[in-house]
Every structure is written in structure tokens, then in C-alpha cells.
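INTERNAL AUDIT FORM
Audit reference: QA-55
Scope: verify that the stored structure record matches its stored sequence.
Auditor: D.O.
Record contents follow.
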Amino acid sequence: MTLAIRIEEVGGPEALQLREVELPDPGPGELRVAVRAAGVNFIDVYFRTGQYTRPLPFGAGLEGAGVVEAMGPEVEGFQRGDRVAWASAPGSYAESVIVPASGVVTIPNAVSDETAAAVMLQGMTAHYLTHGVVETRPGDRVLVHAAAGGTGLLLVQLLKAAGAYVIGTCSTREKEVLALRAGADRIIRYGEVSFPDEVLHVTAGRGVDVVYDSVGKATFEGSLACLRNRGLLCSFGQSSGPVPPFDIGRLNHAGSLFVTRPSLFHYVADREELERRSTAVMEAVSANRLVVRIGARYPLSDAAEAHRALESRETTGKLLLIPG
């Protein structure tokens, strides 16, 4: 038996219920891992609320890090006691979880369990946004929404390392300071000014090459207005709600714009790509080229409070659940 956060009915944070569940032995190609830390992400909110669907009941969480307890048949390259991390194992809000070995990577000695849990999903997201959706080049001008969030802080750092000029948005002075420390060249506090007007002012009317938008509904129209001709809007999240349907012909009239709605899981679809992206992120963390901010830690039983904090948009950096 293990303690785990289960969702029996979709809804608000109260839908996250601590339950004692039976954990099966790992099957072919699977590991059983004792979870040391689980990452809290907006995709978990989307599943909890029913924006993304999954058969009920189900275990909450996708991301974590821990220690291998047991291995199923046909597993190679891992042994008991290995420290491992993953970005996509349903039910990761738990004391122990079954994970597919194909989606697990070994944690380097220089990286702690908590840091590994904090950086797998958001770190690889920042990596594929910088080196996947586009290949960022020196001199590119980009806009990053929610620049002081967990993904935002990592994305700003990777974009700067690739040579981009980074404009970020955030809501408070505290968040502005964090984003500037991460390397942002300019911060716009969107509650105080029109961010499209400010972006066009900063770029002398040209607009930016790419907008990275994890907010969705509330920022979509403004994000389009920030782009140069043939610019790209990368809409990779919907913390404010999904983007409504729109007339694709508008992209023509606005300057032959591009829009993409990517997912990390299509950018780590095979083992080689997963290892390449995770290695790049872990090596950057190990060398202190990528700084991971853990905003708060919650006991597993307080998963609902962690979700409330995330949805409040008052958090900075990564939120973790710590079993035990």
C-alpha cells in the first residue's frame, strides 16, 4: 500500500484526495520508485478540472524524482537504489509510483532530488521552446509571458544563453526583480500598461520574432499584436483558460503570422530526444548555468493548497510536493 493523491471527481482543489492505494508490482518495462519530490504543474490543474480528460478515478501528478525500489521484466540500464527523474508518469503525487523505464532518466550526482523534480517538465519545456519550436539565434527579440513563473524563469535563462533579447511580462515588483535576475532585458508589468503597446515601443514598432505564451485566453490577442511580420506565436499553456476559436485568415492580414500549440511530449517522443533534452538541462543545472528556483514545498497531504497557490498566480518558481 502507498499514500497517493487521487481524483475521484473533477473539480476544484478539494478534488485532490489523499488515499491509501494498492500499488502493483512493476510490469514489463516498468520501475517502482519511492518518490522523494513531485513537481506541481498547470497540466495537473487541467486534468483536475477536466479541461484535459482522463478516465476517473485517477492518480494526480506527472512529474517527480526518487529512488528505484523494484524493476519489472525487460528493464535494462537501471538497478535498485538508482536516483531517477521523470516528466510523464500519471499518479506521481504519491509516496511510490510505477513509471515506464522508457521515460525515466538518471539524476546526476551534482543535482538534488528536489531540483531534478523541479526541472524535468519545465526545464525540458524551456529547452524545446528555445531549441525545438524554433532554433533561437543571437539577436532574436522575444516576449515571454509569466516570466517569473517556474517555466518562465528557466525559459528566460535559456533564451539569453542562446543570444536573444528577452522582454518579459509579470504582475508585481517582486516578480520583476526575479525575472531581471534570470537575465531578462526588459520587464513589462501588464497590470500597469498595455503590454502590446509597450512591446512595440521597445522594438521601435517592429515587434518581436517570437511570443512564448503560457497564459492563453487572457493574452492571446495581445500576443498576436506584438509580432513582427512572419513572427511566431508559441501558445504552450492556458493558465487563464483555453484560447477561443478564431479565423485563421486573420494571420494573413496581420503579417503572415505563424501560430503553434506545442506539447513537450511531442518533443521527447523517442528515447534519443528525451535523453538529449534532459541531459542538456541537467548539465546546465550541474554547471550552474541554469538556476532552478523552488518557490515552495508542501507535504503530500497539502496538494490542494499547492494547487490553490499555483492558480492564484502569486507564486514564483517551482512548487513541489514532498511525501513522507
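Auditor finding: record pair retrieved intact. The chain has two domains: 2-121+265-322, 134-261.
Action required: none
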